[in-house]
Amino acid sequence: MDIELHYIEKGKGEPFILLHGNGEDSTYFVNQLSDFAQEYHVYAIDTRGHGNSPRGNEPFTISQFADDLKNFMDMHGIAS
Predict the structure, then answer these.
(1) For range 36-59, the mean pLDDT
(2) CB under 8 Å to 77, separation ≥6 — which residues?
């Protein structure tokens, strides 16, 4: 991955990834994080070019966002 995604992490347990819509960022989930974190290990990710994640040199494509998410999951040992 040519960039490092910014994320908010909270809680313990099974991983639970929150993905914002286009033009948003992880702060979209500020009111849900504590509730989900009671049962899950929550990751709220800023996707490429959103929030505090850098844009990088790759184009914005669905494939690139999917690759970024797969790399993030691999780096954090999240199987599915």
Answers:
(1) 95
(2) none
